Structure formats: C-alpha cells, structure tokens
Amino acid sequence: MDKKILRVGLSSLAAIAAAVLFFVVFAKPASFRGTAYNAPYPVAPKIELARSNRETFHLSDQKGKAVLIFFGYTSCPDVCPTTLAELKLVVDQLGDKANLVEVAFISVDPNRDTPEKIQQYVNQFNKDFIGLSGTFEELTPIWQDYGIFRAEVPHDPGSNYIVNHTARIYLIDTDGNLRLSYGFQTPMDDIVHDLELLLKQS
Questions:
Q1: For residue range 26-76, what is the model confidence (pLDDT) as tens digits?
Q2: DSSP string, 71-100
Q3: Where are the domains of the chain?
Q4: Which CATH number fits domain 35-201: 3.10.20.30, 3.90.1150.10, 1.10.3720.10, 3.40.30.10?
Q5: Rounded to whole angstroms, how far apart are CA atoms 71 and 156?
Q6: Please, are residues 112 and 129 in contact by the beta-carbon 8 Å criterion?
Q7: 3-state DSSP helix/strand/coil percent for the chain, to nearest 5?
C-alpha cells in the first residue's frame, strides 16, 4: 500500500476518533428547562380530595405517571383558562405518551368551586383533566405545602370578588417526587420537552 495513502487514512481515523472523544467528553446532556428542585428530590406533599364522582383522589395513587398540578379557580378571568388551554396543547403534543401524564386543577376558591363545578370546568379543556376542590379545612394545608398564596379581593359590581393566587405549574415525576415548576406563560414547548425527557428517564 502506498505510504502516502496509509498516512492519509490514519490521519482521517485519528481525526474521527478525536471528534468522537470531544463529543463524549464535552457534549452536554439534555437538561430540563423548568425550575428544578435539588436532589434528593422532595416527595410531593400529600393530596387527598373528593372528586365529582365522590371517589377520593390520592396523589400517591398516581405513581407511574407524571403529574402536572395547577392551582386556580373557575371564576378566574384570565390566568387559569389560559394555563389550562396551554396544558391541553401540551398533552396533545405528547401523542401516545399522553396516557402517562395526569393534569390536576385544584381550587383556591372553595366557596364557589364544588368538585362538580370544577370538573365541569376542566372538561371544557380536556375531559381527562381532573378538577379537585374541598373545604377550606381540607385545602388550606395543601395550599401551604405547595407554597400557594391566595387572597380574595373585592371586585365591583356587587359582592363579586377575584382571587389573587400563585400561578405556577408543578411537575411531579413518576416516583411521586417534586421535580420541576413553571411560572405563568412558560412556553409550552419547554414543558413538553421536560415531560418527554422525564418520561424517557423513568
């Protein structure tokens, strides 16, 4: 074999090997885009609330699925319907993986939101979404555990009021741990990306 051809061949192999080594050493692994909790990941606080069908929803029963939780209320004029509409698009983009994701909408307005009313509300976005409410006594520790701020604000006319509240989506992994959260109007592509990465790692 011609020595020149041999040298060229060996140089090419060396260049390919160097490129592969560089990729292995320096390429960054795929990373989450939401706000991440530090490992060891905290176990998601307990949620046990009656559903509209009178069965009790236990968050602990959802292991094996990723769960997206958002706190809001059915009389919300803007943030809640916007977020639920975006979560519908997130689930739609997951395709066949959608059955591995649960979406729960939990009320911050138990005076007006019965389990039946909140389930009817979420059905308008996706019939697989879960609407949950309860009494103040049942909901208050859940709000506190998830760091949810809420305050009723009088709103004319009459005795109507709005509820100012924390607007974050919480992502719980398939082992029941808090993994990520997202602020209002986080691009839905970021949430889809994180869900697909999380499900792939599970």
A1: 444 679 999 999 999 999 999 999 999 999 999 999 999 999 999 999 999
A2: EE-TT-SSHHHHHHHHHHHHHHHHGGGGGG
A3: 1-30, 35-201
A4: 3.40.30.10
A5: 24
A6: no
A7: 40, 25, 35
